[in-house]
Amino acid sequence: MALLFSFFIDVFFYNTLMKNILPSPLEYKNNNLYFDGKRLDAIAAKKRTPFYLYSKKTLRHYYEHFSKAAVKNNLPSPLVCYALKANSNKDVLAQLKKMGSGADVVSVGELKKALKAGIDPQKIVFSGVAKTAEEIRFALKCGKKGIYSFNVESIEELQLINEIAKKEKRIARVAFRLNPQVSAKTHKHISTGNKTHKFGLLKADIVEALEAREFWTNTTLVGLSIHIGSQLTEMKATVKAIEEISKLALSIDVALEFLDLGGGLGIDYTAEEKSKLTSIDTYMKTVADALEKYYYSKTDHCPRVVFEPGRIIVGKMGVLVSRVVRTKVSDSNHFTIIDAGMNDLIRPALYEAYHEVLPAQASKKLIKTDIVGPICETSDCFGSKRKLPALSAGDLVVIDNAGAYGQTMASSYNEREIATEYFV
Q1: Tens-digit pLDDT profile for residues 124-142
Q2: pLDDT tens for each residue of 388-407
Q3: What residues are paired with 98 via a beta bridge?
Q4: Which of 152, 154, 336, 396 has the most CB atoms lying inside 10 A of its own CB?
């Protein structure tokens, strides 16, 4: 009885919290799971599982909320450059382009996808520590002026960009990515803002590079950028990073066009994250207040602000839909084996990340079970000792919050096909 009560309390809070904190396309009605107002079992009736399911309505909500919050907080000419690494689906990009989004890319493959979606090259920033000569050349020759900015992460990269730009008779627009030496409270594998990480340049190295005239014959410094990590739920490290980029901007004799504050704003995967999550509105107010305190109040210059959101735009819009293959009992251990695997959603195996697993039909019969996939790895597990109805072969389950870092990190490990993506 306690398990049953707990399950329905979980369902109640799932429905209410999703509405009150971060809107989700999922909702239970009469114990049936709905996605964007349509019963999940009806959506999945003629589709091969596993598959990714996306909501255009939810995608539009988060992009519009993010961009409008920037304007509401009086940030100058804000430019949203969506981070393709989170989800590079062509229909996602087409929707974002229609709403005015730019792109943050980290490879020539992502750059080509952004361009194919019609995103203006002058709204594209190119990040990443390992840009090759081929990638730099391609980005330089996009459109009449090339891309909006190369976010430079080493002096050697700056030198290479300048050499290629000289050969191509172009002027490359560059921004230094500052490593602000802050520790973000997130998983160690997605923290990127400390000097022990491979990303960005230290302040002293940037100042030294600015004084080396040989790097600037065919490059021009147009901005500074920071990005301290992903799945950020509190803002102390963000404020400190803004303080550091502001100090650098004020110390150099360059009229910058923009300050790129990166992305990384988190979503609520767990109940704990629901309780401490920083909302989009709070995030934007925090950013605006920090910029005013550390930069705008100290200068008459007013560069625009660039953002690189990914997960906060697409994370909640998508789920991974799977069917139960069979159940298995091993002494006191109960396994629910599903047809989705870690090759479809690697976050639980890679980061020990939590994803809610929801049945298509709620039931009074509850058990504690491990939800595992078909991959020949013990880490192919989506959740241990989860409270679920007793499921049978063919029953549908949904792995929530799979819109970000699901399909983009998918693989064909064990020679499995990449799951299909569908929009409602």
Answers
A1: 999 999 999 999 999 999 9
A2: 999 999 999 999 999 999 99
A3: none
A4: 152
